[in-house]
């Protein structure tokens, strides 16, 4: 790839989420003789990491094949494929890609000035989904693009794509890492307050990088644009949904996005636009600041009055934020049960919806004011615990009134 066409913006990673159905399914896998090993095409230049998630310095080029252990593994919450017979791990998002929703009608590009086709289509439309591979590239026009195919040059402007909908790599349910030289680390509940650890970061982008803050509703607000070469003292490194919001605001996703807190302010810098003097501990916003559940089975959604919404969430490994725990009287069962309330989310979700013929069908829709039985889901232990805001007796009394 010619260097004067674009600059690699990042090497991507992504927390494991549920199995998915991309806009296009590309066949890049060739099964090897050993059923536990697969030859996979690497779709985005990929750095090899060791079993502890540290870079080995080895690089695998895009469109080359690597012999990989078929079952992916997690290291510090990120999905990797192990290179067969080597202590090397490649981030799965550089191989299988991730699914994004198209938010604006978009063309497909070979270069910053030349268009091309993708699966015999010259234009993609809002609402469709598409698979992107690895982090975004910055072309010579200064705009960022995601690779959507290959080895032919096929790219889509990052501005026209939304945040990651889901990862394409499927982890086996309740899978454990069986390899003796790999680790599966559960997220830890880091409680280190802002200010106990700090480093210096330098803006490392010729276009600069936005300094942002968050309003009362958690929306991203730009303060100003930090210039290339500016230095800042930072005291907190955060991943999770807020970092994803900043990535969406900037239009640059790498799957490994995080934000640095500028010491003594309420402002933050996007990690992919800066260079750090030294590493500091990574904190997960969704675990430390919110309560999180997982759907371990197909689960009904309820209304606040205990009636069914006729919508179900299927088993998946995604984290779902909840903002309260309470008892709700369920008339059909004539008893009160504990329910979690799903926190509002602007993203559309894959669900099962009861159709007019009485059958549940696949659908894609936003989840609004919905509750799930606590007994039907799994609470993520390292997230913020909730206590019921009422009692079963109070729920029964309120319902009968």
UniProtKB/TrEMBL annotation:
Keywords: Signal. Residues 1-27 form the signal peptide. Residues 169-196 are annotated as: Disordered. Residues 169-193 have a biased composition (Low complexity). Residues 92-157 form the S-layer protein C-terminal domain. It holds the Pfam family SlpA. One of its GO terms (cellular component) is peptidoglycan-based cell wall. GO terms for molecular function: structural constituent of cell wall. This is S-layer protein C-terminal domain-containing protein.
